[in-house]
Design goal:
The complex is a heterodimer of chains A (357) and B (94). Chain A has 357 residues and is an alpha+beta fold. Chain A is built from 13 helices and ten strands. Chain A has two domains: 249 residues, 2-Layer Sandwich (Creatine Kinase, Chain A, domain 2), CATH 3.30.590.10; 88 residues, no CATH class. In chain A, the strands form two sheets. In chain A, strands 2-3-4-5-1-8-10-9 form an eight-stranded antiparallel beta sheet. The radius of gyration of chain A is 21 Å and the shape is globular. In chain B, α4 runs antiparallel to α5. Classes of the chains: A alpha+beta (357), B mainly alpha (94).
């Protein structure tokens, strides 16, 4: 697979299917692994990093699932291309800052991405649409069984898999679910629910990762502890937590329909109107409107099939993807113009909102 | 007093306190005492109960073979004989 093929094709998760997809956008699981004999990437010289990469590449190539995939050295990518991979959640922002001796291997459906020499030698990630953490983990497990044939991981009977940062010790696993919670936001309940999650040891991050705002009513919810719990325990407990939050979100939506139907219809229709007719739109505003279009789709204002469009619009409005549409560098106003123009074009395939209640 | 350092990768205690990351797998043994409170505060438990890596026969044989080459190069024949013994046990068991 070529880089351009990847860019021109939607990832599997963008189809918008899967369990609980009215509230859960994606489920991701990642495992951190290191080669026993080599220093961790952050403490390696460029030459050592290349040696590690030389050991990992042939091992990764034995995984059948990855045979038709894209092997990409980061040194060969432009800043914009790296940004696009970050926006698609195929590499982390930390990984995008690296180049020589660092790479990523992505499968055809973009459900698997294996980062080489991020903070750890290997970061194996699987991503599924909807609430499917178990399936995502099983995908990784089957890939890892091939790697076990070729490599010896840094492992300790007490501390489990050894990672550069102690926060990943043990399973090396971070399970993370992207949730869309506009109902809670419109009912002013977000803060309360988030506080409840923090209290039970669940980590919450914004759309763009750690320390970012909760834009587009999108929340990434993940496990905090990685040591002393089995992979199954981590997944089951997070799945249960997510299902509970999803119930609260649906309850909030029902309350809005019952108690404030005109307000709700106004919010959704207003966003549709603005996306359809605006000529200049900044990123934050666009994210807000896209959230309401998605809510409208979930509540029956728009056809069910517009889910994929919601995901495509969410990606295409971001800086890296936007830059792909225009070859030259854009200033802020040009970006807002381009963004609005792309949104106008895309939303035109969605019929005007129809109030279903 | 000289600063504590990992003999394998030369990572130092000062560096650990600065970046809160480690240099290599062996650092966990070297800095075990210094790490214990940090691990206790981040993690719920201190004993791993999840998946263990399944080290393949191939990986083990490769490792012993490279140790054997090293021993021969250093003319440590007694050591080489021991490694050869381990290798034959491994091959028999597979």
């Amino acid at each position: 697979m070529k880089f351009s093929t990847l860019i021109n094709n939607p990832a599997d998760w963008m189809m918008g299917e899967g369990e609980e997809n009215d509230v859960v956008i994606t489920s991701r699981v990642r495992l951190a692994r290191n080669i026993e004999s080599d220093p961790f990437p952050g403490w390696q010289t460029a030459t050592q990093r290349e040696l590690t990469l030389g050991k990992l590449k042939p091992a990764l190539e034995t995984i059948p699932e990855m045979k038709e995939g894209l092997w990409q050295d980061l040194a060969d990518l432009s800043k914009v291309q790296k940004q696009v991979l970050v926006e698609r959640h195929l590499i982390s922002r930390e990984h995008a800052a690296k180049s020589k001796g660092c790479a990523v291997l992505i499968n055809e459906t973009q459900s698997l991405s294996f980062m080489v020499n991020e903070e750890d030698h290997m970061r194996l990630q699987a991503m599924q649409p909807g609430l499917h953490l178990k399936e995502a983990y099983e995908q990784l497990l089957s890939a890892e069984q091939f790697l076990d044939q070729e490599l010896e991981w840094a492992y300790d009977d007490q501390l489990g898999f050894l990672t550069a940062c102690p926060s990943n010790l043990g399973t090396g696993m971070r399970a993370s679910v992207m949730m869309h919670l506009p109902g809670l936001a419109l009912c002013n309940q977000t803060k309360q629910v988030m506080q409840g999650l923090t209290d039970i040891g669940v980590a919450i991050r914004g759309f763009y990762g750690e320390g970012t705002e909760f834009l587009a009513n999108l929340f990434q919810i993940s496990n905090q502890a990685t040591l002393g719990l089995s992979e199954e325990q981590i997944i089951n407990s997070l799945t249960q937590t997510v299902a509970e939050v999803a119930t609260q979100e649906r309850y909030a939506r029902q309350r809005l329909i019952k108690e404030r139907p005109d307000f709700l219809t106004d919010q959704i229709s207003r966003s549709y109107g603005l996306l359809k007719h605006a000529y200049l739109m900044e990123s934050k505003e666009t994210l807000h409107h896209l959230s309401l279009i998605r809510l409208g789709r979930d509540l029956g204002f728009f056809p069910k099939s517009s889910a994929q469009l919601c995901n495509t619009m969410l990606l295409d409005m971001q800086p890296g993807h936007l830059q792909l549409h225009k070859k030259h560098q854009m200033d802020i106003e040009q970006r807002d113009i381009t963004r609005a123009s792309i949104m106008r074009k895309m939303i035109s395939s969605v019929p005007a909102p129809e109030r279903p209640f | 007093m000289e600063e504590k350092q990992c003999p394998k990768c030369q990572f130092t205690l000062a560096k650990l306190q600065d970046i809160r990351r480690l240099g290599c797998a062996y650092c966990f043994k070297v800095f075990a005492d210094e790490l214990a409170p940090a691990i206790a505060s981040i993690q719920k438990q201190e004993q791993h109960i999840g998946r263990k890596p399944q080290i393949s026969i191939k990986v083990q044989t490769d490792k012993l073979n490279s140790q054997l080459q090293k021993a021969i190069a250093q003319e440590a024949y007694e050591e080489a004989a021991k490694i050869k013994q381990k290798l034959s046990v491994l091959i028999e068991s597979s």
